Every structure is written in C-alpha cells, then in structure tokens.
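Re: [help] complex structure
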Amino acid sequence: MKGNGQIDSGSQRSRRGRVGVVTRGSLVEGLEMKLDAERNVEDMKAGKFVVIEGDKNDFFSMVTDMRLDATNSEILLHPPARSDELLRQVLAGTGTYNIVSLRPMLMMSKDPTSRDFDDGPRPVKAIPSHFSLVQEAEEEDVACIFGREGDSEGKYFSIGSPLDMDTEVCIDMMRFAERSNGIFGKTGTGKSFLTRLALCGLIHYDRAVNLIFDVHNEYGWKAMKETAGKTSSFVKGLKQLFGDRVAIFSLDPKSTRARGIQPDHEVYITYDQIAVEDIAPLQDELKLNPTAIESAYLVYAIYKNSWLRTLLSLEGPDVEEFAGEIGAHAGSLVALHRKLKRLESFPFMVKKLESSNGDHRGDCDREGDCVDRIMEHLDAGINVVLEFGQQTSMLCYLLVANVLARRIHEMYVKKSERFYATQRPEDQPRQLMITIEEAHKFLNPSAAKQTIFGTIAREMRKYYVSLLIVDQRPSGIDDEVLSQIGTRITALLNDEKDISAVLTGVSGTEGLRSVLASLDSKQQALVLGHAVPMPVVIKTREYGEEFYKAMGADVEDAGQRRQQAENERELLFGPE
Amino acid sequence: MTEGGVTGTRSLESFLEGNTRPVSRPQAAVDDGVGPAAGRTGEVIESSTTTLVAEARHLHEAPDFGAFVRVESDGRDIVGVVHNTRTQSIEPNRRPTAYGKTEAELRREQPQIFELLRTQFEVFVLGYFDGTSMVHLFPPQPARIHSFVFPCTPAHVLAVTEDPQFLRSILETTGLPTDELLLAMLRHALDQRARGERGSRAYLAQMGSELSRLLRDDYDRLSSLVRRMTTWEQA
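Output below.
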C-alpha cells in the first residue's frame, strides 16, 4: 500500500491495508476517520470491518457512514470540470476529502504481557488517540474475534464471511442455543436460508433439539431456491442432511406425500386437547369479541377438557338453550359456537384419537397423543419438523402451534422442576428451540400476553425452552419479547419501524441503522447479539454441496443413485 | 591571464558576434576549464540572508527565470532560485540609447557599447545543502560577495524539489512574482523528473496537493495554477 510506507504503524503485527487516520469522535457517538487520498470512497461500504490501531489497543470497528466534505465552499460552487483531471487529483484528500464514520465494537490489548490481553476482545471502554491508523481487517483479526469453525469444543459455526473478505464469521452455537433468537428480513431476502443455516448449525453441533413449525413446508425436505428468473433449483432440507436425526410430522399427510415425501408421523389433534387459552390468541383470526372468551370459560368450568367437543356437538338452535343451562349470555355463546365451527373443517381435528368410526386416515398409526410422540422424539434428541402441507391458513397455524407449544412447554416445565429437585445430570432436559415463522402473529403486543410463545420468550432458558423467531415484520412483535432476544440475524429491512424494532434492546444502534438499511437484498445479513462478540455484516454462507458435505450429509445426487440402482438391477437380473 | 588584462591589443574580429568575452572587466580574469570557477554562471555582488544579487558571467546569459542555482560560500552550498533578471548600464547615471539598428549591426559597428552593459540576476535563497541533504532553512551566514554562482545539477534540483517545503517558502515571501515563480520552478523540477524514474503526473499531483493545502482559502488561485500545469502535460 502506498500510504503505508510513510508512517510507521508501530504495531506488533503490521497489517497491510491502511485506509485512513482517526480524526475525531467520542465513545458515545463513534469515531470519524479521514480517508486516505489514494483510497476510493466507493470501497468503504457500510458494514465493512476495520481495525483502528491505537497505542495500547486494537479497536475492531465497523464502517457505519461516509461523507464527502470540502475545506472551501468555493470548490463546491465551482467544481473542477470533468477534463480537469489533475485538479481533481490535486484536490482529492486536501480541498476535498472523505470522512468515514466508524463504530468501535471491541477492543483488544496489543501488549501480550498486559492483564487484559488474555481476556481477548472486550467491549469498548476507551477510544484511540488522534491520528491512530485505521487498517482493513484481515483474516486473523476476524478469527480472533469470531473464532474458527472446527474448534475442539465444537462451539463455532460459520454462517458467512465479512463483506469483501474471504474468511469466515462464526457464531458461538452454545450461546446461540441458550437464548431466544430472531431472524428478520423482508420477504425474499433469504430468511429461510438463514434459518436453515442456523438450524443446521444447531443440529450438526447438537446444541439444541429443534421443534420447527414449518408452515411453508421448506425445512423438512427440499425447498426451492429463488434464482431470479432462471430455472429454479432445489436445495436439500434438514431431513436430507441429517437423516435419522430429523423426523417429519405432517398435519396434511396427503400434501406431504404429493410432494414425494413420506412423513414419519401424522399429527391429529382432538377437541379435548384444545384449551380455552388456545382459543384466546385466535381472537383476531376468528374475529371473536372479548365476551366470547368469557363464555368459553363458562363452558370449560362445567365440562372441563371436553368443553370444545361438547360445544361443537350442539346444533345451532340448541346453543341458546345450552347457554341458558350454563348461565352464559346466549348471543355471545351463539357467536362463539358459530365461529368455532370453522375448526371442524380442519382435517387434522378429530374427535378421539382411537378412531371409533373406522375412518382410517393413513398408514401411520394414529395411536397415542401426538404431543407425546413429539416429546419422545425430542427427548431422544431427534429434531421435529412439523409440516402444515396445504393447511397454511393463519388460523390453523396459530391453533396448532399454540396447542402443541403449550403442552410441550408444560412438559418441559415439569421436567425442569424435576431436574431442580433431583439435580441429577441425567434429569437435565435437553435444550429445546422452537422455530416459529410469522412470529408477529403470536408475539404482537396483545397476543404475546396470551400465547404460550410470549411466556417462552420471557421465561426463556429457566425451563430450557427458547424460541427461534422468524419474521418479516419485527415491528409487530411486542417490545418486551424483542428486548429478550439474544441473537438477531437480520437481512434487509427498509421500514423505519422494523429497523427500530430489530435494534430494540441493543446499545449504540445509531450506526447500525444505516448498515441495516443498506444491506443487499440477497445473501447479506447483519448479525448481532449474544452469540457474536460484535455486530457484523456477513455475506451468507453458500447453502450448497460444500455445505452439505461440511454437515456430514451424503451428497450423492439423484443421478448417481439411479445409476447405482441400475447397476444393482443388472447384477440381479442381467442386462435388459 | 590571457589578453583580458592587455587592454587595447584585441583584434577587431574578436568583437564580432559570438565572441562576447569582455575585455576590461576584472571578473573575466578567471576562465572556463578547470578550477573552482569552472562552469560558473555568475558572481555574487550583493548579498543578504534572504536574497542575493549576482552578475551574470556574460551579457544576457543569466540563468532562466525560476532556475535553481547554487552558491559556494563558507564551505556550504547555498541554494536559491532566480526570480528576477535585469540588464542595464554599468554606470548608474548613464542609460543606453536607442540606435535603431539590429544587434548584429551594432556589434559590428559599435562593439564597445556592449562592454558598458551588464546583466544581473536576483536569487531568492531557499536553503542550503548540508553534505548531500537539503536543508530548507536560510543559511547561518549569507553568501560572501564575489562567491561564484553555479547552475544546480539535476541531482541537486531533485533534492531541492523533493520536499514541497520550497512551495511554502515562495508563497510566504512578499515581493516575489509568486505564482509565476512557482510555475517556473515546478517546470524546472518537472524537467528533471520527466527524464528520471518518477512519473511527472504523480509529482505534479503531489505538489498540487501541497499547494491546495497552502492555498486552502484561495481556490481560484489554486485552480488557475493547476490548470496552467495541466497544459504542460498536454504539450
């Protein structure tokens, strides 16, 4: 680098990519750097990762903003002509200059003998002195902060690389699993790919067992990859990558089979499994009025678990009479009854689990409670993908997710309490992470207080259950829940409200806003929070053959398999 | 000693054009060839810390405007730049008269009038050489009267103009034709570089940047200077 020879950097390790010097700033508002004249301002992208070499510490920082400036307003009034190349060259860096705003994120002592050196990167509590050199971060810097995949503890999982760099950015899977996390982004920005990556990391390193409410059927088996008008291609799902460690449950076995997948289990829900608490969050979808829930509680008070079955078994005209019997308001109960009738149209809703009417719906056994089944799997460390097939209506999704999550949560609370009582390591429940899409439906300010997901998000790891919230409209999620999110992986967001929502509960967010709004719409994400030492913009890891291999999956493709089958057939029966 | 000291014995031909060697002037006593005076271009006749006045060795043969010159004095080489040249009568009270003839005719018919003229040039002191390195400070002592003035060698010019400090010296001194002088100096500096290894463009950009810093409040002046430099490149 041209500029590097002029001033001795004086650091322990000389980096090669000088970009400028620090000129002003504060701890609160971040630092400003004057860009070296020979550097092109277009190379300084928001989110780029640089290192400020102070006298005692290296400050790992992120580029958050840049500004064109001039010493003299005359220059701006009479800018050099296009042909005045020499004049422009002369003015560059003197009369006209570029200021780049930096946000120091971490600092690390340069002196190997100092006490702080062993602690590694620490939060920034100081700022570098005037004219400290700013260098481009190198691979070693990134590894020093984010760790490297393949460490002995199996902690680090690479999810991508920093902007304009070829090295990997890792998230600490242990920390990722122990808190609720969020994956946000506008539609089409790669949320599903990010989610799939995160899930692969969790499963591969066995940091948590996952229950995935797969409302769009894209995690279990293959999913389509958006390829901007070109022939669409498919990527492998979790079941393909992890085989026996993933089980597919289906609410709509017909649809699942139509896509060429054999579900491991079918899910049926009986009316008795639905509690009034499960209906409460459906207020919006069913357009229930507040008194409807009160009426439901009245029915429940008498009929307990069979309240819904009893209510739905009534025919229209009988409801009023029934209301009189239980002392409920007739109009309200009639409305509730009318609206709950919609539930009967769901194919997975059954009266009893042991089908008495001989209506055998599939070759999977329907015996036993599906929640128990799911729990068995989760206990055995098998991840569960719950496919919704064609039952993608919000009503269905909300209902099923609530019913299942509530009961699973209850079981986890019991298990945790037992563990607290016995304190035996074998009683310790496995960390469970529940993935929910369209999370704002469960976690909006009114629903968050009623749904079980709000409770899980708040109580968090006390009971070994956490959430992986996938959403495109984070502003719809209750602030209280957002502030508890550990790690946020955020693809492009444009809406101011969404951006503020994602940054709720994060300090020093001013610079990050501009970074968030300027992400590419594909394959770029901002990662911040508990599992990474500092916020970082990444180019998402390629979800392809190489990744499958890294996850230890069998990558032979269909063509190879067909060829092998053909060979074996020939062996058995001779050539055709 | 040659015929310089023997006044009146010069042949008429010796006054013809092309042979302008003065006859009666004492400083002509030392000739070209070897010795400390070899290659000199003038001799100091007035000296101060900041400026020197030198008399050119030959009439009309002062160094170019903006050229870098060197004066050997007190064992150090003082470096300066020529910023003014004038030719006038030797005697302050007498002024040359217009004859209405060409110089060639005059030299043939009245060769003595050229003997009564002298060319002087003024040098602004930029600094001095301490050994081989350039010091951008005024010398501790001014050049001695009668020291010889030499043109700077290309190596000297490179050394003097490497550091843009000289631009500042010129800009901050009053009484100089600043802009013209700067351009002339840069032109001389550039001539040495075009032949050297460094790109002339990079050099101009570097010096321009320094000017831009020095003239930060005067964008018009800077842009006019730089635009004039641009034309050299195109030439």
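Residues 446 and 478 of chain A are 8 Å apart (CA to CA).
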